[in-house]
Amino acid sequence: MKTKNLSVKKRDGTIETLSIEKIRKAVSWALTDTDYTETSLMSHIESILFDKISTERLQKELVIKAINLVDNDNWYETLGWYLVAGRLQLQNLYKQVSSNRGQNDIGYPLDFLYTYKQGVQKGIYTDYLFEHYSDKEISLAGTWLNPVKDMYYDYSAINKLVNDSYLFSYNGNIYELPQERFLLMSLAWNAREPETDRMKQVLSDYEDLADRKISPATPQYEILKPNASLSSCFTTKVDDSWDGIAHSIWQFGDVTREGGAVGMDFSRIRAKSSWIRKIPNTAKGTIPWAKIFNDTAIAVDQLGRRSGSISIALPIYHYDIVDFLDIQTISGDERRKAKDIFPQIIVTDYFMEVLLSGETWYVFDPYEIETKYSYRLDLLIGNEFREAYKFLVTEAEKGNISIYRKYEVLWLVRIIIERWFSKGLPYIFFKDTANKYNPNIHVAPIHNANLCVESFGPTIESKNFKRTSSGDKSAIEYDTGLSHVCNLMSVNLANADDKEDIYRLTRKVIRLLNSTLDLTSTPTLETERYNKSLRVIGLGQLGLHDYLAKNNISYENSAEHVDELFENIAINSIETSIELVKRYGSYELYEGSQWDNGVILGKSKDEMLNVSKFKSRWSKIYKDLAKYGIANGALSAIAPNTSTAIIQGVTASVLPVYKPIFIEKDGTNIVVKHAKYIREKQWYYKSSRHIPREKIISVLSAIQKWVDTGISSEFIFDLNQEVTAQDYLDLFVKSWKSGLKSIYYVRSVTPGAVESEKKECLSCSG
User: Fold this and answer.
1) In sequence order, what are the residues at sequence separation of 6 or more whose Cβ sits closer than 8 angstroms to the Cβ of residue 607?
2) Which residues pair with 672 in a beta bridge?
3) What are residue 228's phi and psi, to 5 degrees?
4) Alpha-carbon span 530 to 536, nearest angstrom
5) Which one-letter DSSP state was computed for residue 657?
6) Mean pLDDT value of segment 664-674
7) How does residue 93 score in pLDDT terms, banded at 50, 70 and 90?
8) pLDDT tens for residues 358-401?
9) What CATH number belongs to 233-461?
C-alpha cells in the first residue's frame, strides 16, 4: 500500500504522518464480535487516501465503504456491515464530542460530574440535578456509564441520534454522548423519588434505556434543557369568533416554536356563505382560516429544525366538507389551498350507518344550526347526534334551513378514497367510538385526534374574550379552555426478555411518564391546565412484529396472542396508576369520570369479568379503583414510532413491517432498513402489503380493546396487485366496525421504488 509519504490533517488543524496502523486499529474495533475480517475493508483504503486528507473525511470514507459492502443480493452474509458502518460513525461522534469539550481522551470522560457541571455553566443543562442530588451521588452514577451499549447502534441509529438533535449541542456542536444522555434522563426522572432507594432506581432506568427496552418520545430527550417542553403534541378546539380564531393561531405558534405539533378542531367555525354580524353570505368559511394556519406552520418553524405541523379536523356533516377535501389538490383557486396541513375528517357513527344504507347525506352550517336550534352538533355524541341530525334533515326539507347541501353518500366517500389514493390523506377520526371509551366524557367530548391520530382527549375552546386596559398596559381576559397534551413513551416489545419483562417495563413507563409530567413545562395556559387537572399519559409499544417473529408467531395469525398480551399490559398499567395515587392523589377531575363510576375501558366490572381470562386481577383492580381512585385520566396511546424505532433497532409501532429489508429515504440520506431478526426468523416477516388487510385490522382491533385512546393505524395498498375502490371502501368500513378509533395514512405504493419520506411529526415518535 503506497502510503509512505502521505499525511493527514487532524481536527485541531495540525498535520501528521498518515498511520495505517491507526486506521487498522479503528477498523478492528468496529469489527468486534462480527464474522468479518479487516481485509474486506482495508483492501479499499488506498482508493480513498490522498495527501493531507482530513481525519473527518477519512472517517466518512470508511463509513461509506462499509455501507457499500452491504450486498442486497447477498444480504444474509453482508448485512452486518451496516452495524460496522454505525460503529465507524460512532468513532467520529466520539472524536467530535471530545474535540468540542476540549478533552484529550476520546470517548467517555472519567469525570461525569465535571462534564455535567461544565454543561450547567455553559447553559446547556439546567442545574436541576444539583437541587436534588449530592456531588457524590452524581459521581457514583457516572461510574455506571457503559460505552459497550453504543456498539449495538447501526449506521441509521447513530445518524438519527446525531442529525435529529437527540444529543445536546453547544454553539452548534454536539456536546454529549448517547450513554450520558440516558444517564442524565434517568437521574432527572428519579430526582424526587425517596432517597433511600432512588440510586438503585436510577441505575435500573439507565440500564433499560441503554438496553433499548424503553423508548422515550423525541421531546423527552430534551430533559434538563432549559425551559424544555417534554410533551409530544397537542389537540385544541377553535372557537367560532375572531378573538377565538386569533387566539388559536397564537396558541399554535407557541406550540410549534417549541417543537410540538397540533391537531386543531374546526367543527364550530361557520361555513362559507354564513352570517357575520347578522349579514348573510359574508363568511368565507373554514378554508381561508386553514390557509392561515398552514402559513403559520411555515413561518413559525421548530427552532430552525423543521416547519411546524398541524392536522386540521372538520366533521363530515360540515357544509365546507367538499372544499376541505379539495384543499390539497392541484386544480382550483390557489388562494383556497393549504398544502402543508394534514386534513382530518371527523366521522360519526350515523354517517357510517347512512353509508351502509346508501342514503343521502346532508351537510350544514354549524353557526346557523346553533343560532336557530341551539344545537351544538360538535357536543352531541352517539344517539343524541343521530336524533338531532335526523331532525335537521327534516327541517332542511321543509325549507327552514338556509345553508345546507345534500350528497349521495357514496359520492362523498369516493372523494375520500381518491384523496387516499393520491395523497395518503385525509386521516379519519371515528368520533363516537373514541367517546364511547372516553374516561373523561364528564369533562368534555373528544372532538378530534392529534397529528398522528393516536392521542386525544377532551378539549374545550377558550372563549368570551374581553380586552381591558389600565394606563399604558392592556390585557385580554378570557375563559381558559382545555387543550389535550400527548405525553408519550413506549415499551420495546422486541428487546424485552420475555412477557414478564414487558409487564415490568410497563409499570416502569407509567412511573416515568408521571415523573415527566412533573418535569415538563407546556407552551400554553390551556395545556398547562390540562396536564395539571387530567394527568393524561400515553403508554405505547413498538417492535411488535419483531417480538412475534422472535416467538415464532406470524403477524397475520397473532390476534389471539396479542389480545392476551395487551390485556396484561393494560392490567399492569392500571394497577400502577392506582398505586401512584399514594404519591400523586387521584387526578383533579377524577370525580364523575368513568373511572369514578366503575367503568374501565368502556366496561363495568361484570362486563369485564365476562370477557376476561384474568378475573381475579380485574376484580382487585375494580375494588382498588373504588377505594383509592387513579392517578391518571388516561394511560395509553400507541404512536407511529417511526424515528425512535430507528434508534431502537426494531420495527415501528404495532404494525407489520413494510418490507423485511428495504431502502428508505430518511431526510437527505438513503438508508437500508431491515427487521431485527431477519436472519434467524425471515419466514415470520411477511411484508404488510402481503398480509390481508382484514388480518391487520383484526390484530389492531385486539390491541385497541385495551388501549384507552388510539393507535396510529397505517394501511398500505400494493398497486401491482389488483386494487379497486371497493378495497378502500372495505378498509373504511371494517376499521369502523372493528372498533378502531382512527385511520392514519392510507398509502398506495408500487414495489421497487425507493420508499418516499413520510411527512409526520417527529415528536410523536415515542
Assistant:
1) none
2) 663
3) -75, 140
4) 8
5) P
6) 64
7) very high
8) 999 999 999 999 999 999 999 999 999 999 999 999 999 999 99
9) 3.20.70.20
Find the distance separating the first CA and the last CA of the chain, reported in whole Å: 48
The whole-angstrom separation of Cα 420 and Cα 328 is: 12
Q: How far apart are CA 300 and CA 435, in angstroms?
A: 33
Please give the DSSP secondary-structure letter assigned to residue 341. S
Whole-angstrom CA distances from 132 to 112, 128, 188, 520, 522 are: 17, 7, 9, 17, 22
| Least confident among 508-512, 540-544, 722-726, 753-757 | 753-757
Q: Kindly list the distances between the CA atom of residue 539 and the CA atoms of 323, 464, 542, in Å, as whole numbers in the listed order.
A: 37, 35, 11
Name every residue whose Cβ is closer than 8 Å to that of residue 334 and which is 6 or more positions away in sequence. Answer: none
Q: Which of 458, 455, 355, 363 is nearest to 407 (CA)?
A: 363
What is each CA distance from 672 to 66, 88, 663, 749, in whole angstroms? 12, 16, 5, 18
Query: Is there a contact between 490 and 544 (Cβ–Cβ < 8 Å)?
Result: no
DSSP classification of residue 754: P
Of 313, 283, 310, 312, give the one whose Cα is nearest residue 299. Answer: 310
**Percent of the chain at pLDDT above 90?**
81
Q: Can you give the pLDDT at residue 663?
A: 65
Q: Answer whether residue 84 shows pLDDT above 70.
A: yes
- 366 Cβ contact partners less than 8 Å away, ≥ 6 residues apart: 240, 267, 268, 269, 270, 271, 318, 376, 377, 378
Q: How far apart are CA 438 and CA 547, in angstroms?
A: 30
The structural architecture, per CATH, of the domain 487-713 is: Alpha-Beta Barrel (3.20)
Domain with CATH 3.20.70.20 in the chain: 233-461, 487-713
CA-CA-CA-CA torsion sign (287, 293, 295, 298)? negative
- For the record, the C-alpha cell of 425 comes out as 390523506
Helix, strand or coil for residue 593? coil
| CA 228 to mean position of chain CA atoms | 17
Nearest residue to 117 via CA among 107, 109, 129? 129
Residue 271 contacts residue 285 (beta carbons within 8 Å): yes
Q: Are 267 and 482 in contact (CB under 8 A)?
A: no
Alpha carbons 631 and 635: distance in angstroms, whole number: 10
Phi then psi for residue 207, to 5 deg, are: -65, -40
**Would you state the pLDDT for residue 752?**
54
> For residues 138 and 126, what is the distance between their CA atoms, to the nearest angstrom?
14
The predicted-structure confidence for 109-130, as pLDDT tens digits, reads as follows 889 999 999 999 999 999 999 9
pLDDT class of 355 with cuts at 50, 70, 90: very high
CA atoms within 13 Å, Cβ hemisphere of 763:
34
Is residue 754's pLDDT more than 50? no
Indicate the DSSP class of residue 111.
Answer: -
Grid cell locating 420: 387516499
Angle (deg, nearest 10), helices 135-142 and 198-210: 30
pLDDT above 70 covers a percentage of the chain that reads 95
pLDDT tens string 474-504: 999 999 999 999 999 999 999 999 999 999 9
